[in-house]
Amino acid sequence: MLIGADAHLFENRLAYQLEGETHVFLRNDELFVHVIRGDNDKGFHVDTTAIVAGGDSTITVGFPADSSAFAVNLTRDIVTPVATYNDGEPIVAISDIESGLGAFRRILVAHKVADAQFNWTFGKGHLVLVGDFVDRGASTTQVLWAAYQLEQSARKSGGTVHFIIGNHEIKSLQANYQTANEKYFHIAGILGKRQDQLFDDEALLGRWLASKNVLEVINGVAFVHGGLHPDIPKHGVSVDDINRIVRAGYRTPYYSPASVSTESFLRSGTTGPAWYRGYFKADLSQQQVEQALGAVGAQAVVVGHTLQGKVNARFNRKVFAIDVKHPKDYLWSFPFRSSEGLRITNGQYVRLLENGGTQVLN
């Protein structure tokens, strides 16, 4: 426990309920909605509905943990987001949900970002999802549909959801499922597909994820899952360059080349922005941190990826670390877990607690 370990006490078998699992695939102008029905005793079948252009594009996503459900409005329009924003609006950031829909929903509701149906309630604010929302849990599909729905709902209200790609999203896009819940292997089989096809370019969620950025700068603050390596200034790349280069490698497994290039540096599992851990494990100076920030036009950076006991500030409030142990949907652990996040308003950084409480970070 002193080094952050915990004990798994009980797993709810609802984690393996496949009834209602929903996946959407694109072919030309049609969307094909596949909903799994049945169970191990009765057997499984798939209800498939084709949605032509102009047809009703609302689906219902179920959450077995509490038998709830929420609606998702689908769109065929998937575009790469801009990567730099300057509007002075408040920001809430959450990272490393790791397929935990219940924890995601609770902290959003507690801090008035969304309601329990994932409808936006944060006005013109920004919600930044700082990577690793997939893997290590049994609600991957539900979490991604929730983020997708939040994005559609926020846009209608003038707000913005930013899904920053983390190393585990990259793993999913590259068909690396070592830390995915085993249920998704079987879900793919029921749908008549391989597991990698759940996130390929014909899968709506796969195409949506592949369009996202690995780094965004919002009101002078950089958001990146791993971090900004101190050698970034040497490569002379802009925020858009970094996103373009890393995005081009989302679907290509990385290997260490004989000679390092800008492309290999940014896609690396050690130095790349989705993977870097140097703020916590390397001997970095304040100057190196600030030079890397300056290279992307930021005054501070918010990161996930490296587990913390609580949301905290480092390097004279230039680095904010927000990866904490969120509760699991179907797994009870000891010590008990509690979600946290970060809010930034008018230059003030506030730690957000699961119960709705706050604490200013000094």
UniProtKB/TrEMBL annotation:
One of its GO terms (molecular function) is hydrolase activity. InterPro entries: Calcineurin-like_PHP, Metallo-depent_PP-like. Residues 90-307 form the Calcineurin-like phosphoesterase domain. It comes from the Bacteria. This is Putative phosphatase. It comes from Gemmatimonas aurantiaca (strain DSM 14586 / JCM 11422 / NBRC 100505 / T-27).
